[in-house]
Amino acid sequence: VLVRRCADGSELRGRIVETEAYLGGEDKASHSAGGKRTERNTAMFMKPGTIYVYPIYGIYLCMNVSSEGEGAAVLLRSLEPLQGQSAMRKLRAARRQEGARQLKDKELCNGPSKLCQALNIPRCFDRRDLASDPEVWLEADESPPKPQDIVSAPRIGIESHGEWAKKPWRFYLCGHPCVSVVNKEAERRSLSVNTADSSDP
Q1: 152 in helix, strand or coil?
Q2: Cα 17 from chain centroid (whole Å)
Q3: What is the pTM of this model?
Q4: What does this protein do (predicted)?
Q5: What is the band of 143 on the pLDDT scale with cuts at 50, 70, 90?
Q6: What pLDDT score was predicted for residue 115?
Q7: What gap in Å lies between CA 176 and CA 151, rounded to an integer?
Q8: Are 123 and 70 in contact (CB under 8 A)?
Q9: Rounded to an integer, what distance in angstroms lies between the CA atom of residue 143 and that of residue 135?
């Protein structure tokens, strides 16, 4: 569960329901491909649990968490809002056209840039430590998913990276309404693997 403490002391909470893994040097789709360190991707080479926030399209932000492995990180793709939905709705509305319809709860954080807007994750959170930061941290989920509920599918938006675009390194909770993009083929594969595993003596 990702927690964001606001300036007024209130807290916003969202359960992580979708992620993408980026392995670092060998992963051609990673910002750290080839082991290249830059001013932008420094957080990927810092200790696991370091926040990596980067801009896309010049206006939106994405939040990642550095993980084990040189230059490896996990992109947070979608959250299930658990606390502070009205505040999230206001934060999202500030970036939308005036008069746009009100967002449903499941639409507040169902994408990497949307969750950054909804939880007010700014660029200056880059390189902060999730284990000790007073404004943003992770908490254990009181009802964690079973491994068989997790779908493994290809990552999104990296089609130009050849074989690396096909690696099944996007993970999401099967059937969850807050997942950004559903992959029916990957779900069928996961179901058949899990069915085979459960019948194996």
Answers
A1: strand
A2: 8
A3: 0.92
A4: Hydrolysis of the deoxyribose N-glycosidic bond to excise 3-methyladenine, and 7-methylguanine from the damaged DNA polymer formed by alkylation lesions.
A5: confident
A6: 97
A7: 11
A8: no
A9: 24
Q: How many CB atoms lie within 10 A of CB 188?
A: 11
Distance of CA 91 to the CA centre of its chain: 18
Residue 87 · residue 11 · CB < 8 Å = no
Residue for token digits 């950054």?
116
Give the integer Cα–Cα distance in Å for 54 and 113: 10
| Contact by Cβ (8 Å): 141, 1 | yes
Q: Are 87 and 108 in contact (CB under 8 A)?
A: no
Strand partners, 111: none
Tell me how far apart the alpha carbons of residues 50 and 158 are, in angstroms, rounded to a whole number: 23
What is the Rg, in whole angstroms, of the alpha carbon atoms belonging to the chain?
A: 17
The span from the CA of 156 to the CA of 170, in Å, is 8
Segment 19-50, tens digit of pLDDT: 999 998 899 999 999 999 999 999 999 999 99
Question: Cα 23 vs. chain centroid, distance in angstroms?
Answer: 15
By three-state DSSP, how is residue 3 classified? strand
